[in-house]
Design a protein that fits this description.
Blueprint: H1 4-14, E1 18-22, H2 28-34, E2 43-48, H3 52-57, H4 63-68, H5 74-88, E3 92-98, E4 109-115, E5 120-126, H6 131-151
Helix pairs in contact: 1-6
Length: 159
Amino acid sequence: MSCAKPLVALLQERGLSLSLAESLTGGLVADEIVKVPGASKMFSGSAVCYQESAKARVLKVKKSTLKKHGAVSAACAKEMALNARKLFQTDIALSTTGYAGPDGKDVGLCYIGVAAQDKTLAFKLRLQANRQYVRKFCALIALHILYQQLNRKDIEHGS
């Protein structure tokens, strides 16, 4: 079950705008948000940047970050969120990056980034599931993390 509906309501109640930067989830987070009637009042847009070159070109993730930490890292997730916030001129941005598989030693490793005016955070996940579920779980967990952060007031108004 998605917490998109209460998240959208909370963002609207606080007068906050949201944007997204998605890699691993390929638009699944945006899909959950836009399913909620009235989401257009707070949701600006999403950039789906799957390849490293798109992360660098569209989201302005530094090549040095990609070289030093990789595209699947806390540093990359933070930059994706921070730069999506700038790109869409929103109060808050949420990002996802990770390995969905099916192959590789790090399948299920995911990072979620949250950027607001006063702080930028990253959260690491280790999911054990097939490709489809890693992507879906990461999207749903990202929404839940943002909802928790807003509820605990760990992040505040951005602009």
